[in-house]
Amino acid sequence: MKILSIKLHNFRGILEQEVQFHSYSLLVGPNNAGKSTFIDGIRAFYEKDGFKFKPDKDFPFSKTADEESWAELNFRLADDEHASLKEEYQVADKTLRVRKLFLTKEKGADGKNAGGFIYAYKNDGTLSNDPFYGAKNVQSGKFGDLIYIPAVSKVDEHTKLTGPSALRDLLTDVMSDVVEGGKAYGVFATSVETFASTILKEKTKDDRSLEGFQDSFNKLLEPWQTKFALRFPPPSAADIIKQMINWDLLDEFHGKAQGVDYYGSGFQRHFIYSLIQLGAQYIGKKTAKKTKDFVPSLTLILFEEPEAFLHPPQQEILARSLMAMADKENWQVVCTTHSSHFVSRNADSIPAIVRVMRNGGNVEAFQISDADWAGIVSANKAIEAIVDKYPQMQNKFHEDDVRPEMEAVKHFLWLNSDRSGIFFANHALLVEGPTEVALINKLIDDGKIKGADCGLQVLDCLGKYNIHRFMNLLGHLGVAHSVIHDDDNDKDQHKHINQLIQSSKHVKLTLHIHQIAKDLETLLGLPPAGPNGNKADHRKPQHVLFLYSEGRIDAEKLASFCSVVEGCLPKPAQPPAPVTPAPLTSHVATAAATS
């Protein structure tokens, strides 16, 4: 079993949003965008570790169309899981869609309020009026297990043996099998029996014993024809873990045990994840027991900000490890992240990236579905028609460049950890290459470009021919953007490329497209970057920054370029106009005057 999608209705900042999940999914976006809202919606569905929907905190404060709140999950079932499902819920595509009602005025078939129960869609497409398999806490056994790792958590929360934790679950799973079929436990159980028979007879210095206590007690119970007997049963696997197992961290450098607080936050974060990783290796090996009852298998990991306290190389290692875990059967991983390193590792599966943002107070999710991706690929192929018209372009393109599979490869290469920052930006400024990126960022640093503190990402599109591709990508992911590019005299193939960029404009998200007359060098009055008047494109970034640092760019032309950039940035929100008090009516004014 794996989750295909979740739809939340009237939950915190979400009025109604649905997102698709893959085996490994990322929820990305700016701070306070609402990424954790989706995580908490899942947690409220499962009610793991006592996490429940609270009307006073979880029902939206904004105006809603109704007074219901619910979470709807759609699962893909394995063949045996589907076969064991009640026939009324079986559908041809072997999915199961269920809705948990957090808050409702509706009543179930028993006439009681339906709030807190889970209901499944029947094979006729209607929502059943009977709770799914009857019980109110059915989610604990019918939808797998959930492991939640918050952005900030203590090792103790995941390693305690006296209550629910990842370590206890892992040890219990292994220990149960050892107890069931191992020789050591048989020897241990026999030893407990020997101990019990011996300890009953042993006496204290004042001649007391457990056996004597038992005999005395039984004499008092004789009139009732009942006997009292002490027992010493061998401890169960759970008892052994709770009472007889402890653990230490051994510092090999110092040669002694250390408390976990001795280690830094990065190690503690790695320690927690390592427990989860071992769960995939050990618990994942268990053979499913054959049963006629519907008991699907799923371990769902909700990991908030897995990059916390890890430096970039460690982040990339953890990202690859989580992806490998999610590839295992009946395992699924959903992460919220602020890390472009995590996004870049997932760039070859863009539909698995969900960008979350706020529109006013409402949370909105943007995601590229498989159908959307096909549309993006089709739109990106518009460049093919231009190539066919101009022989000078054909020697730069290979026939593979227009294949859909190549589009996925290109995006994987392009969306490195730097460019993946666009998923967290409030506004992206698309430019042709590294020269514009370097100069614009330097001008922003020097305070010559105003209004850039809007969550801006200046994006190198690796050439003019790719700008429309990034516009299509950002439009589908809900990222507002502007474009600055050379018009190259609007001649030949450049005329068609310029038109392609204009036609790729998103009606709401493309703020502005500015074409620089001829090119940037002309606008700024720059000499060629190479010797003897040659262009030497590879030297352009360093050449422009050097001339700027030397004060050799005309101040008026530089100010003109800064004005161009500022015109492509979003304008700050204007404060509401002050409300002018209405004039006093005549009788009030008279009363005020006389008083």
Q: Can you tell me the residue ranges where pLDDT is under 50 for at least 5 consecutive residues?
A: 581-595
The named CATH superfamily of the largest domain: P-loop containing nucleotide triphosphate hydrolases
Structural class: alpha/beta
Mean pLDDT: 85
Describe this structure in words.
This protein has 595 residues and is of the alpha/beta class. The chain is built from 23 helices and 17 strands. Helix 11 links the parallel strand 10 (299-304) and strand 11 (331-336). Helix 6 (166-181) packs across helix 7 and helix 14 packs antiparallel against helix 19. The model is unreliable at 581-595 (pLDDT under 50).
Question: How would you summarize what this structure contains?
Answer:
The protein is α/β, with parallel strands linked by helices. It has helices spanning 35-46, 55-58, 79-84, 139-142, 155-159, 166-181, 183-201, 210-221, 237-244, 265-282, 312-326, 340-345, 370-380, 382-389, 391-394, 404-414, 434-445, 467-476, 492-503, 520-524, 540-549, 555-567, 586-594, and strands at residues 2-11, 14-20, 24-28, 69-76, 95-103, 118-120, 145-149, 249-251, 256-258, 299-304, 331-336, 353-359, 362-367, 427-431, 456-460, 480-486, 510-516.
Q: What are the defining features of this structure?
A:
595 residues; alpha/beta; Rossmann fold; six-stranded mixed beta sheet; five-stranded antiparallel beta sheet; 23 helices; 17% strand
